[in-house]
Write a structure and sequence with these properties.
This protein is an alpha/beta fold. It folds into two domains: 10-128, 3-Layer(aba) Sandwich (Rossmann fold); 136-242, Winged helix-like DNA-binding domain superfamily/Winged helix DNA-binding domain (Arc Repressor Mutant, subunit A). Helix content is 41%, strand content 19%. Strand 3 (55-58), helix 3 (67-76) and strand 4 (85-89) form a beta-alpha-beta unit. Helix 4 (94-103) crosses helix 8 (199-213).
Length: 244
């Protein structure tokens, strides 16, 4: 599974269960990654400062400072905010998913999971930051920059903070507007058809995306088509009609 031509990426696993850390060490080593470990949030902060990991796998429930508190701390720091973070937890409610997405988690994986699924999700996030195509897409005052991985809206322009998964969904919608996209289509484009990600997960991320776009009125562009999926409107009047 290891790619000899790929630079070794460093992954920090933050989890208080020794058996889980050992499992992750084996899985990530076999996949060609360098794995470092922390068993609590304070140790993780020190390792992030010293080791500068390329991605963080973060448990939710830990003694002392929780994974959610650590996530909030990291996303509030300019020096750490761009490190992709996958929340890896046994908690599986829609409310929990939305909570960590709104704080800034880049992905969410529920324990137990198949190791190849985790590796695929890690690689998807790492590729997201290095393989974006050139060019921008504009709809009214909504501007998506594929190269810089940024979204800007409004006058004066303001940056919209999106996690990597929400950005990929928006990019898919904006490059394929005005047609209905089934949840399976979104799954294939964004998660590569990962069979551990279901349509409910797509719905959660779309809700998160709508909330992020709402201050500028662009949430109205994402239409739910009952029984079919989603359609993203390119019409300029969508936002104009939504204005108070």
């Amino acid at each position: 599974m290891e790619n000899k031509d790929r630079p070794t990426k460093k992954i920090l696993v933050v989890d208080d269960i020794p058996d889980f850390r050992e499992l992750m060490m084996d899985v990530l080593d076999r996949a060609g990654y360098q794995c470092i470990m922390a068993d609590n949030a304070e140790q993780a902060r020190l390792m992030i400062e010293e080791e500068r990991p390329d991605i963080i796998l973060l448990d939710w429930v830990m003694p002392g400072v929780s994974g959610v508190e650590l996530l909030r701390y990291l996303k509030a720091k300019v020096t750490y905010a761009q490190i992709p973070i996958i929340m890896v937890t046994a908690r599986d409610s829609e409310e929990d998913r939305l909570r960590v997405l709104e704080i800034g988690a880049d992905d969410y994986i529920v324990k137990p999971f198949k190791p190849p699924v985790l590796v695929a999700r890690i690689q998807a996030l790492l590729n997201q930051g290095t393989s974006g195509a050139d060019g921008t897409i504009r709809m009214a005052d909504l501007l998506l920059d594929l190269k810089e991985q940024t979204v800007i809206a409004g006058m004066p322009p303001a940056k919209i903070d999106l996690g990597r998964i929400a950005f990929r969904i928006l990019a898919f919608f904006m490059t394929n507007p005005d047609v209905i996209h089934g949840r399976d289509s979104v799954l294939k484009q964004v998660w590569g058809g990962d069979d551990k990600v279901g349509g409910r997960t797509v719905d959660v991320y779309v809700r998160h995306l709508r909330k992020a776009l709402e201050p500028w009125g662009h949430h109205h562009r994402i239409e739910t088509v009952r029984g079919s999926g989603y359609r993203f409107s390119s019409a300029a009047e969508v936002v104009a009609n939504a204005a108070p």
